[in-house]
Amino acid sequence: MSTSSSGSPSAEAADPVRRPGRTPIDVAVVGLGRAGVELARAVAADPFLRLAAGVVQSPEKVDVDVGRLTGTAETGVLATADLDAVLRDPAIGCVLHAGLGDPSDVAAVLGRCADHGKDAITVSGLVHPLTALGPVGYERLRSRAIDGGARLVGTGVNPGFVLDVLPVVWGSMVTQVRHVRAVRVSEIGAWGDGILAELGVGRPVAEVVDSSPLSVAESLAVIVDGLGLDVDAIDEQVRPIAADRRREHGTRAVDVGRCAGFRRLATATLRGTVVAEIEWVALLGMTADDEHQETASLRIEGESVVEAEARGTFFGDPYPSTAARAVHSIGPLAAMPPGLYRPDQLAVSVR
């Protein structure tokens, strides 16, 4: 082992990820829709990673250079629909998943990755696998990860950071936490077509069946577990928001009475008292006249009080930040033992 002049291990030896000449990790991106495009771009921009495969569902995208699909330079990597062939490639070190579907669909893909010994990170929910999958589904996926020698996690901006990981980090400053409240208001006009369809945006409110993976109950469970809160139950209420006027954002429009977004409220209670709560309001075509304006806020009460607000470009367009979170989780996840994790269990450092 090399040492510094002080006799302690050098930074190069202690942190092999930063070692000059280190071979980049080969990464596969599964799903090249709006989120997957940003994942591929983030991988291509990272000197420690190499985009090795892109998996698509649309037949017209097969055998097209991933660079063309992502609007970047030609990569020499042709998109494929054969996920199993990608997973059989021994060079692939990590899979970034951006496919649509409910938690069981996402778990099925991650399970296939685990069976081939591939670490996998999804930006499609699963931030609290036990809540998302139930005890049986959770244990099945966890066992597949351990048996395959793989590490699995769900993370992004929301869920996966703003309304769950950040509150856990801030809450570590408060002893004897008595109450947590986190709120986010989002403009969703820039979101991808697939997720808006899952949310029922544009459909008559009476016909909306929300099938998206954006569960605030999962995020609240991350806070409860991460801060060690004692609760009896976590409940979630989801309701679509009907457009009170014609709402427009870019080329998108929602007519009066049709679904223009959602309100999600999750509460964690102990003997009937609310201990922690998350509220997420998302709306297409926000204006200055709307009751809700884009924001993210947090208040934690205990022996001391912590209040925080977040601002940034991730409000108008969350996809680049979502991709950054996933890409920056590759190194910390690889340092964990094989298993199934929550995003708050990963190291904060990006390398």
Round the mean pLDDT to the nearest integer and report it.
Answer: 91
Succession of helices and strands: HEHEHHEHEHEHEHHEEEEEEEHHE
**Strand fraction:** 25-35%
Residues in helices, as a percent range: 25-40%
List how many beta strands DSSP finds. 14
* Gross geometry: globular
N- to C-terminal distance? 20 Å
CATH topology of the largest domain: Rossmann fold
CATH class of the largest domain: Alpha Beta
Question: What would you note in describing this structure?
Answer:
Helix 7 runs parallel beside helix 9. It contains 11 helices and 14 strands. Helices cover 28% and strands 26% of the residues. The chain starts with 10 loop residues before the first helix and ends in a 10-residue tail after the last strand. The strands form 3 sheets. It has a 6-stranded parallel beta sheet, sandwiched between helices. Strands 7-10-11-6-12-13 form a 6-stranded mixed beta sheet, with helices on one face. It has a two-stranded antiparallel sheet with strand order 8-9. Residues 1-20 have low confidence and may be disordered. By secondary structure, it is an alpha/beta fold. It folds into 2 domains: 11-156 and 321-345, 3-Layer(aba) Sandwich (Rossmann fold); 165-315, Dihydrodipicolinate Reductase, domain 2, CATH 3.30.360. The protein has helices at 11-14, 34-45, 66-70, 83-87, 103-115, 129-148, 165-171, 193-199, 216-227, 319-327, 330-334, and strands at residues 25-30, 49-55, 92-97, 119-122, 151-154, 179-187, 233-242, 247-249, 252-254, 259-270, 273-283, 295-301, 305-310, 339-341.
